[in-house]
Amino acid sequence: LQSNQTVCESAAEGVKVANSQRLPSISISANASYTGNATLMSRGFSTSGTADVIVPGLGPQPVSLGKQTTPHWGNNFAVEVNQVLFSGGAISAGIRMAELGEQMAILDKQKNRQEIRFLLTGYYLELQKLANQIEVINQNIVLTNHLISDTRKRVEHGIVLQNELTRFELQLQQLTLSRQQVEDAMSIIRYQITQTLHLPDDTQFATLDAAMLAEHAQLNSHGEWLTKAMHSHV
């Protein structure tokens, strides 16, 4: 879900970028330069004497050879503004595509959230089913212990054979083993729930007992169920 949220935020930024294509773009540039002193020489690379230099509007003018005083600093500043007047619908199509991408990201997040909710619901229902199985097994163990006690008395009085007592004792061992298997399965389900919700491994989850089921049975309307869920939400 966190990765889905990141994708949604990225898609929202993509919509902003696509909309910005309709705005004018402005570019500004500035530069500065420095030119040192120039040296005027004759064709023989001599710096003594004079030379004729053509000056616009004045014609050839005699200029002394050697170092010349010239402007040193120069600068340039430019501002450019661009505005798209016609793009054949490319900008509008790009904006629409970005909006669809954002909608898809939101739908994917909602879909994954629902899948996680159904997954957790399945885990909890499985946990409740296993808890009900343990309750039934515990009742059978109590009943089997009573049968063993009664059968042991009957064996002592010679009413039934020893193998009848052995059969009930074996049944008790099978019930004890079944209870252990169900408890192990519940531990696995609890671990899967904690891993899905990023909770500590020792987190316990309460299951519904008979009293709680009777209380929930009194809820009739959809609003009552929502209110009960909100109060039970952690």
Could you describe the largest sheet, including whether it forms a barrel?
Answer: 2 strands, antiparallel
> What ranges have pLDDT less than 50 throughout 5 or more consecutive residues?
none
Biggest β-sheet: strands ordered side by side in the sheet: 1-6
Helix content: 55-70%
- Radius of gyration, in angstroms, nearest whole number: 45 Å
Cα separation of the termini: 19 Å
Oligomer: single chain
Mean pLDDT: 85
List the helices and strands in order: HEEEEEEHHHH
Number of helices: 5
Structural class: alpha+beta
Overall shape: it is rod-shaped
Q: What fraction strand?
A: 15-25%
Number of strands: 6
Protein traits:
single chain, 234 residues, alpha+beta, two-stranded antiparallel sheet, 5 helices, 16% strand
Structural commentary:
The protein has 234 residues and is an alpha+beta fold. It has helices at residues 2-20, 90-156, 162-197, 210-217, 222-232, and strands at residues 25-34, 38-40, 50-55, 59-64, 66-68, 73-82. The chain is built from 5 helices and 6 strands; from the N terminus they run H-E-E-E-E-E-E-H-H-H-H. It starts with a helix and ends with a helix. The model has no long low-confidence stretch (mean pLDDT 85).
